[in-house]
Hints:
By secondary structure, the protein is mostly helical. It has helices spanning about 5-10, 15-45.
Amino acid sequence: MNVNAALQAANGTDLLKQAVGITLLNTVKDTQAAQAATMLRDFAAAQHPHLGKSLDIRV
């Protein structure tokens, strides 16, 4: 999505364009938040269950 166009529309004087721009920005924000949550959930699921729980040290 073109965020610059949405920002220009939100800052414009035309009320319809402004309303559409604000709605578009909210949609983009929600989509980005959902994608970030999915990436974090996938990253957590990909970790080894014992990672960081013990240390193997040999001297």
